[in-house]
């Protein structure tokens, strides 16, 4: 069968890599892709948000299944447009993608469905929001309602900081229309974890839990990023919490159904593992990045079969098989990221690393320059990923690979999975 993957980051590279392993896949295209993806698939210069062009490409090239990576096309209705044209596509409809596209929609649904989450109120008036913050006190969390490229959340340590966030989001409109409303919520403490589930609308199947590292510097210091690394399994999501996590997904999917929305695709729960159990921080309507890079190397099942089962409503007869291993992804980022960063630096050492067993360098922001050299072309450049029989061995293997890759100004964290390793040691 012919497959089209939409997107061009590390997550999409991991999707293409795993789809390519299926005997059932003949051709893979990726729009727009990157230099790493180009080694496995045919890259097509169509932006991930150019929905009409993507649909025309899919029908002209007889694509049997389209897989959507990023949230922007999902929230803009790529699945609705493809479905209306009779094209098979993996992902939630625009209505279902509101779970990520509107934090107010998500919070209302969670509260109504009885899903554990931070207590919250929704405001469309800045003065009322500020008054609420003054009444509640700090710490408190202020979230822009709409999509803000992962930057719309302020965990405010003081009332002044929260008021400033309200002004920035609602009055200065630094995230545009995403700031028409804000969600103001209780600040939760604990460790965060990411649990994704695949669903066909009725049946859902949990993917292996993962943890990402959002801050740019070691020891979780510095500004937030799109993710500086990830690992799976996540020991903090112990078997003890499994029933609670199932309940979160069951209630959320039921809450959507009660609104007439069938969710098909991957549903990503960002969880805070509090003393009282897991609570939902957010839902995303897509695969996590970089979580996907560590979850897919652990999946034994044929990904194309599983994704197809989600689209056709047959997931109940499609169990997931897993390898008994652990995976670690170390993101190598450009100098300056997550602020202004450089582009165009030559990346060296990739051919040597491609020969290593149980290692895959997923490209995030790369391209080939005029002379065919692979150069940096984004803030997050590479996700150096390794898998092994346990987490400690996977960490060692990933960092051995990182040491062989070089580009000017490369920055990466030295402590990916370190907390999980120390927890494991404490437990044993
Ligand atoms: P979100 O996009 O809603 O997941 O928020 C981004 C990040 O902000 C999360 O990964 C958490 O680190 C933090 N955060 C969000 N909501 C809360 C909360 N209620 N309490 C504490 N931290 C939060
Ligand atoms: N790693 C966080 C996300 O994909 O949103």
Key features?
25% strand, Rossmann fold, 22 strands, five-stranded antiparallel β-sheet, D-amino Acid Aminotransferase, Chain A, domain 1, Dna Ligase, domain 1, binds glycine, five-stranded parallel β-sheet, 428 residues, globular, binds adenosine monophosphate, alpha+beta
Describe this entry's structure for a reader.
The protein is α+β, with helices and mostly antiparallel strands. It has 4 domains: 2-93, Rossmann fold; 125-180, Dna Ligase, domain 1 (2-Layer Sandwich); 191-317, D-amino Acid Aminotransferase, Chain A, domain 1, CATH 3.30.470; 326-422, Glycinamide Ribonucleotide Synthetase, Chain A, domain 4, CATH 3.90.600. The chain has helices at residues 10-20, 51-60, 71-75, 78-84, 94-101, 103-113, 126-136, 159-171, 242-258, 291-295, 303-312, 350-354, 391-402, 418-427; strands spanning 2-7, 27-32, 42-43, 65-68, 89-90, 120-123, 140-144, 153-156, 182-186, 191-199, 204-206, 211-212, 215-217, 221-224, 229-232, 265-274, 277-284, 326-333, 359-363, 366-368, 374-376, 380-388. The protein has a 5-stranded parallel sheet with strand order 3-2-1-4-5. The chain has a 5-stranded antiparallel sheet with strand order 12-15-18-22-19. Helix 1 (10-20) links the parallel strand 1 and strand 2 (27-32). 51% of the residues are buried. The mean pLDDT is 95. The structure holds adenosine monophosphate (AMP) and glycine. Glycine (GLY) binds next to loops.
């Amino acid at each position: 069968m012919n497959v089209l993957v939409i997107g061009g980051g590390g997550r999409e590279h991991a999707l293409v890599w795993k789809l390519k392993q299926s005997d059932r896949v003949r051709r893979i295209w990726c729009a727009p892709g990157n230099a790493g993806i180009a080694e496995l698939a045919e890259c097509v210069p169509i932006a991930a948000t150019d929905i009409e062009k993507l649909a025309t490409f899919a029908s002209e090239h007889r694509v049997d299944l389209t897989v959507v990576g990023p949230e922007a096309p999902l929230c803009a209705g790529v699945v609705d447009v493809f479905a209306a044209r009779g094209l098979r596509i993996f992902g939630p409809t625009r209505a279902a993608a509101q779970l990520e596209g509107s934090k107010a929609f998500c919070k209302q649904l969670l509260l109504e469905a009885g899903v554990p989450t931070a207590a919250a109120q929704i405001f469309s008036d800045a003065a009322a929001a500020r008054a609420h913050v003054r009444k509640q006190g700090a710490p408190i969390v202020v979230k822009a309602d709409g999509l803000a490229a992962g930057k719309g959340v302020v965990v405010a340590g003081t009332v002044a900081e929260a008021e400033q966030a309200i002004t920035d989001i609602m009055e200065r409109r630094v995230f545009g229309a995403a700031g028409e409303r804000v969600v103001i919520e209780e600040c939760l403490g604990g460790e965060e974890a990411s649990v994704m589930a695949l669903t066909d609308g009725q049946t859902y199947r949990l993917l292996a839990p993962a943890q990402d590292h959002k801050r740019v510097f070691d020891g979780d210091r510095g500004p937030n990023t799109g993710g500086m690394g990830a690992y799976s399994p996540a020991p903090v999501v112990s078997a003890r919490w499994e029933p609670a996590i199932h309940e979160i997904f069951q209630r959320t999917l039921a809450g959507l159904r009660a609104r007439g929305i069938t969710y098909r695709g991957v549903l990503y729960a960002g969880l805070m593992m509090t003393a009282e159990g897991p609570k939902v921080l957010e839902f995303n309507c897509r695969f996590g990045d970089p979580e996907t890079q560590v979850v897919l190397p652990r999946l034994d099942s044929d990904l194309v079969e599983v994704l197809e089962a989600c689209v056709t409503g047959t997931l109940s007869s499609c169990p997931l098989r897993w390898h008994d291993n652990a995976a670690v992804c170390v993101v190598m980022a450009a100098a300056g990221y997550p602020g202004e960063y450089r582009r165009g630096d030559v990346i060296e050492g990739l051919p040597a690393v491609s020969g290593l067993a149980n290692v895959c360098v997923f490209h995030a922001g790369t391209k080939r320059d005029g002379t065919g050299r692979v150069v940096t072309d984004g803030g997050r450049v590479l996700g150096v990923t390794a898998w092994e029989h346990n987490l400690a061995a996977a960490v060692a293997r990933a960092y051995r690979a990182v040491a062989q890759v070089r580009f000017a100004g490369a920055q990466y964290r030295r402590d990916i999975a370190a907390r999980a390793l120390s927890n494991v040691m404490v437990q044993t």
